[in-house]
Amino acid sequence: MTKKWRVIGALFLIVVLLAIWLIWSAFTVPSQRAARMFPSPAPKHDLGKVLVVYYSAGGNTAEVAQRIGAMTGGTLLELTTREPYPNTPMLYLRAKLDLGNNKYPELETTALDFSMYDVIFVGSPVWWYTVSLPMLSFLSGSDFNGKIVVPFCTQGGRSGDFFQRFAHEARNAKLVSGMEFSRVSSIDPPSLDQTISSWLSAVDKEIVR
Predict the structure, then answer these.
(1) Domain membership of residue 189 as a residue range
(2) Is residue 40, in this structure, part of any structural domain at all?
(3) Is-contact 98 128, C-beta < 8 A?
């Protein structure tokens, strides 16, 4: 076999493997990683009655949301889509197309009454350097009616225009400085708790009561 045909054979094999991977990802729903063990959070932060709304695709945003809820005594609300997203890389290919067309998924979550809460934390992973589609769907159907809203995100690279897009989409929200968490799964639990706790202290100082 000549060198030319060996190269062609290798390229063909790569194409076949990529095709198999894409087909597999298109029909496989991503699973969230198992939650890690954390000590009981301390100190506690009294921010009034807190709601933590979040969407999590792989478990990182869920982990942060759960720690915020534990530290503030807040109520957790996880957003879910009626139709699950595929696994990577098809997830990112579909997200890119849907973001370009402003096509948001339908959520299982019904309209919320924010009037009973003092502070609302809203968290999402970063998709294509902006707010994830499920969270954009939630924001497009929500009116915060002057409530204090605190955004947060998780990402593996950079947050891009996440906070600018969030501010644009969060209708009638009194926004407080948000927080981005990078590569959550690689942060040891005590360090993650300390980061969240320090941020919550800053949020407490920023809130005008």
Answers:
(1) 31-206
(2) yes
(3) no
Angle of helix 133-140 relative to helix 90-100, nearest 10 degrees, comes to 40
**Burial of 117 by CB count in 10 Å (0-12 exposed, 13-18 middle, 19+ buried)?**
buried
Annotate 80-112 with b (16+ C-beta within 10 A) or e (fewer). ebeeebbbeebbeebbeebbeeeebbebebeeb
Tokens of 36: 């890690």
Q: Whose CA is closest to 84, among 121, 58, 112?
A: 58
Each residue's pLDDT tens digit, 38-79:
777 767 899 999 999 999 988 999 999 999 999 999 999 999
Contact (Cβ atoms closer than 8 angstroms) between residue 207 and residue 174: no
- Answer yes or no: is 140 within a domain: yes
Can you tell me the distance from the alpha carbon of 69 to that of 83, in angstroms, rounded to the nearest whole number?
27
Q: Say which amino acid occupies 110.
A: T
Return all residues near 73 (Cβ < 8 A) that are at least 6 apart: 44, 46, 50
Residue 22 lies in a domain: no
Per-residue pLDDT of 130-167, as tens digits, reads 999 999 999 999 999 999 999 999 998 889 999 999 99
Percent helix, percent strand, percent coil in the chain, to nearest 5: 40, 15, 40
Number of domains in the chain: 1
* Residue 25 within any structural domain of the chain: no
CATH code of the domain in which 101 resides: 3.40.50.360
